[in-house]
Amino acid sequence: MPGFIDMHAHLLFPRCSSGDAAPQFDRALSEKALSRQIDFGITMVRSPATPTVEGLKLRDDLNAGIVRGPRAIASAELINDASLTAPQLRQVMRDALPSRPDYFKVYARLKPEQVAVVIDEAHRHRIPVIGHLQRTTWAQGVDLGVDHLAHSLDWSIDDLPANRRAAYTAAIKGRGGFRSRIDWLEAFDPNGIEQRQLVAALAHKRVSVDVTLIAYDGKFSKPADGRFRRNPFLRAFPELRSDWERCGDATADWNADDYRRWQAARPKLSAWIKRMSDGGVLLVSGTDLTNEWIAPGEGLHQEFELLAEAGLTPNQILRMTGANAAEALHRSDVGIVEAGRRADLVLLSADPRKSISNTRSIVWVMQGGRIVSRDAPKP
């Protein structure tokens, strides 16, 4: 197989901090996680938001072979300050240019006119833009020229049927951000006319989407769910478990009915991903690594299994982490096994086209023509 590509794997892990203190990034922990990823057959990662100086230095060290792990491409720090004027936005981006970012990333709070400024400035420098959008809808982002979209949905109130928006606004005020995601998904219509038009636009413009199902299922899983919170591959990362239990439990205030409602609405998320796939959208695989209950390396294989549960075939999933990723990256040297490409390869002992779980049957991992890992990792 071509080496697996994780299109949403943040390079630097933030550590749990007390009070309102800014998170501190842990380079040693991050290097440990990157080394684990190469053992799981991940030979390239895209980091869609990275502390500009620290993160892009780590990218350079990975690509120079100073740090063991996948080769990396990375964005500068995400842009999410809705108070910034157009000149201020452009200056933020120009300040990042000396670190040579591969991307800029616009985030949830930015208004359409701000997203437009970032896209214009980035494209002036021939740098693509990743969108984690919400205040600006996906449809607006596509019209403005965004190059890539992160996660499966934009969670924008404007994407809900008009007669459901007032109830959702009330849910945000009364239930908070993550709990109100349940209300949003209950109201969402993946088969609506606006969504069909969006799929057509995404497919036509070849805007890639990394769907990160594990980021939702990991966050919103019940504490007793062994698939994520009791994942044996997290034993190697006790510091992550400690941080997530202290600071990162998104469902700490959920009750039994919240979990029930999420599980009842969750098939809509699968249906939407299947609709995008069937509509020809350029889907790519990603984990949103550094988020809670995602085990470095093994999390991508769990993502493959979640995509299969959503109705995608093994061949479609393998394309997402191979040929589709290469297309989204505009790379002709990775993602496919053929003469002239880099020898970033994974040898498997079982056929993943028969069962996607067979991506775990690793015999060896090759990076740039050199075997860098042997045998499937053990917990």
TrEMBL record:
Coiled coil: none annotated. SUPFAM superfamilies: Composite domain of metallo-dependent hydrolases, Metallo-dependent hydrolases. Residues 266-372 form the Amidohydrolase-related domain. InterPro entries: Amidohydro-rel, Metal-dep_hydrolase_composite, Metal_Hydrolase, Metallo-dep_Hydrolase. GO terms for molecular function: hydrolase activity, acting on carbon-nitrogen (but not peptide) bonds. It comes from the Bacteria. Pfam families: Amidohydro_1. Keywords: Hydrolase. This is Imidazolonepropionase-like amidohydrolase. It comes from Sphingomonas trueperi.
